[in-house]
Amino acid sequence: MIYLQHNDPNVCVPQHISKYGLYSANFFLLNAICNYLYNYNWLTFVAFSLYTTTILHWYKIKHNGIFKIIDVITCIITMSSVSFYDSLYFCLQHRKLWFLSAFVSVVAYILNKYIEFYQQSYKGSNYFLANEPYRYFSFKYTYPNTLQRELSYKYSVFVHIIFLHINLSCACIYGVVNSQSCSNYYITN
Asked: Is 35 left (phi over 0), alpha (psi -120 to 50) or beta?
């Protein structure tokens, strides 16, 4: 069986899989809307910018490209803005939840990239055999145009979506929406 875009040197993730990243980008839009409703003006702008760059990047994910660079920079700005500025207006427990979510997301991102490197880029002597079942937590190389490579793409994309798009958006929305009662304390003191 031939899988789409496994041999394209410019495409990092096939488009039939990266479309899920496009769908999950709506969490950033929802985040921007909630920020707007609760008067987090800077965070509204940053979240909407992240939504825009994520759409542009995930439409066709390339190994190197201007949209990838802009998306990564916008993501770092967004996480920094929430962590060092906007979370000061969260209740203490919501701020702790944000930092825990951010820590888990960063660890998951690093581990996912590490596994993705071994399974999709590193061509060592350890590789999946033709009939061997795929395992996400494996450091075996997956050959292009195989079921293992297709599953490697899917798992790495879903881990990214769950831990970065959904987890961080939900933690930020939760902090923004539920910390309205605490914000007066932090503003006046």
From this structure: alpha
Looking at the 3D structure of the chain, how many domains does it have? Answer: 1
Q: State how far the Cα of 118 lies from the Cα of 112, in Å rounded to an integer.
A: 10
* Residue type for position 115: I
Q: Please name the residues in contact with 113: beta carbons below 8 A apart, sequence gap of 6 or more.
A: none
Cα(175)–Cα(186) distance, integer angstroms: 14
Domain of 125 in residue numbering reads as: 15-188
User: Which pTM value belongs to this model?
Assistant: 0.89
What letter would DSSP give residue 124?
A: -
**Bridge partners, 127 (sequence order):** 141
Which pLDDT tens digit goes with each residue over 108-132? 999 999 999 999 887 777 888 878 8
